[in-house]
Specification:
Heat Shock Protein 90, 21% strand, five-stranded antiparallel beta sheet, Beta-Lactamase, five-stranded mixed beta sheet, elongated, alpha/beta, Helix Hairpins
């Protein structure tokens, strides 16, 4: 006879985990640090009775080391400990106490943490233990510091660009009148020499304003594709001469092409400034090494706002084994006019110029330095796929007395600075042009309308009102526009043929003004 099957018994439910064990497991798995403190308050703080794994990782201590100490082991700032002590004694201690401060790790280094102290009542409703939650904010504080430094540099850059604009007008006047006076003093060598000294000082001042504009990213930027390895090799002889007997130059260039987009002339200045800066820091057996490499930033590896966007980059580094820099120097390194060199040995604009050029090239620059070890300047620039065009570096032309071009056309000069306006109008008049000068476009419109003749050339620092004036003068046909711009990029007039317009950035030499005017007027 077949036996009757017995019903299958269900397994009994597992016994509930003890509450204390469950709470300990929950605290141990938290990503934020947790300390449980006992009362009463001792001389060095509250005794630690529990520390979870996250806080052990933050502080570098083992759990046993923490539970044998007080919270003063990590809370080393006296102001924090005093505040916590007062909170425990206050009537409102039932409310949590929050703060943020630097705590000390086991290795002696400090880390930033936001913390909240909460009081736990015992079974009788009286103050018992204290629970503290910690969140590591070191990375956030570092990011805020970087962003604050960047914002300060941006503010200084805007100020520098504004100052440079005003200085450019003054320098144009100084250099312009030097050119006017030079031909008049050919029979007086002593006076001609003194005027030449003034002119040399004016040209140096023009170079300083150019560097200020570069830092403030307000300088015209003729970006082209260059192959960085070839560019460095072409400049190697000049860089070696720049180092002289102070040290040797070594190249460690990547074999793969390293094409970037930048202004070749200004990037050459970056090379020279960084190598010159390294040379001044060298000691015995000094070596300056230039390296190139490619770097790929993958998505997810640029978590911070200051990190480059995902993509391929060319990395260019200048490393020296010189004296190095302390942290305070590194923090102010790119500020205009900040220099550690003796008085008269540097303008403090070299690295400010480097910063501006790299920013205009859509790149990043980082510095690593250690005292008595050396420094490394790392420039990270977006890699481009276009082929590089050969770019000859043309040296700047020497300034000569203003040449004569013997014009006869009608020219309208619009310039708000009365001294600069008078000088430009004077040199054009002396060269044969019929000149109408005005302080603003509205005045220029009235004066040109009253003469009843077409204006062939408009010399103006173009803005919206200036463009309206140019359009009204173009109605008679044949207008040329010379923009004495001081902006980062020259904006072309889409309604005017490209050959009938040009830019002459400030400060400009009068010889350049006369040549540019003649070229425009002779253009078909």
């Amino acid at each position: 006879m077949k036996k009757k099957s017995q019903p299958r018994r269900r397994a009994a439910p597992a016994a509930p985990r003890p509450l204390a064990g469950l709470l300990a497991a929950a605290l141990g798995s938290l990503g934020e640090g947790v300390l449980v403190l006992a009362r009463p308050l001792r001389k060095n703080g509250f005794p630690i009775v529990y520390a979870n794994a996250a806080f052990c990782r933050m502080s570098g201590y083992e759990a046993g080391e923490l539970t044998a100490a007080t919270h003063g082991l990590v809370h080393v700032e006296p102001a924090d400990r005093e505040r916590i002590s007062l909170w425990t004694k206050a009537d409102g201690a039932e409310h949590p106490l929050s703060g943020e401060s630097y705590l000390r790790r086991k290795d002696g280094h400090m880390f930033s943490a936001a913390w909240t102290f909460s009081r736990v009542q015992n079974t009788k409703g009286k103050p018992g233990h204290i629970v503290v939650i910690y969140r590591d904010t070191t990375e956030r504080r570092g990011l805020q510091k970087v962003q604050g430094h960047t914002q300060r540099l941006e503010a200084v850059g805007r100020l520098a660009a504004g100052v440079a604009h005003d200085f450019n007008n003054l320098i144009s006047v100084i250099n312009g009148y030097c050119q006017i006076l030079s031909p008049m003093l050919e029979d007086n060598p002593k006076a001609l020499h003194e005027v030449s000294q003034i002119h040399n000082a004016g040209r140096k001042a023009a170079e300083l304003t150019r560097q200020l504009l570069a830092f403030g990213r307000r300088q015209p930027f003729a970006a082209r594709v260059i192959e960085l390895n070839q560019f460095v090799r072409e400049n190697e002889p000049a860089l070696s001469r720049l180092l002289g007997p102070a040290g040797t130059l070594e190249l460690e260039l990547d074999e793969a092409p390293a094409c970037i987009q930048t202004d070749p002339e200004q990037f050459q200045q970056v090379l020279f400034n960084l190598v010159l800066n390294a040379r001044d820091a060298l000691r015995d057996r000094g070596v300056v090494t230039l390296r190139t490499a490619r770097r790929t930033v993958s998505a997810g590896l640029n978590r911070r706002a200051t990190d480059p966007a995902p993509g391929t980059y060319v990395v260019f580094t200048v490393t020296d084994n010189g004296t190095g820099m302390d942290k305070e120097t590194q923090e102010r390194l790119f500020e205009p006019f900040f220099t550690t060199k003796p008085k008269g040995k540097g303008s403090g604009l070299g690295l400010a110029t480097v910063y501006g050029v790299i920013q205009q090239s859509n790149g990043f620059i980082n510095v690593r330095s250690e005292l008595l070890v050396g420094s490394t300047f790392e420039i990270v620039l977006p890699a481009v796929t276009e082929s590089a065009d050969p770019v000859p570096l043309v040296p700047a032309e020497p300034t000569h007395p203003a040449a004569t071009t013997r014009g006869h056309e009608t020219v309208c000069v619009v310039e708000a600075d009365p001294v600069l306006c008078k000088m430009v109008a004077g040199i054009l008049t002396s060269d044969g042009y019929r000149v109408i000068d005005a302080a603003n476009p509205a005045e220029a419109a009235r004066r040109t309308a009253s003469i009843g003749k077409a204006v062939q050339l408009l010399v103006i620092n173009l803005d919206r009102e200036g463009e309206k004036l140019a359009k009204s003068l173009q109605k008679n046909g044949g207008l040329r526009v010379l923009d004495t711009c001081d902006r980062n990029a020259w904006q072309t007039l889409t309604w005017l043929p490209s050959g009938h317009q040009a830019a002459l950035p400030r400060p400009f030499a009068l010889s350049e003004l006369l040549k540019a005017a003649r070229r425009l007027l002779d253009a078909r």
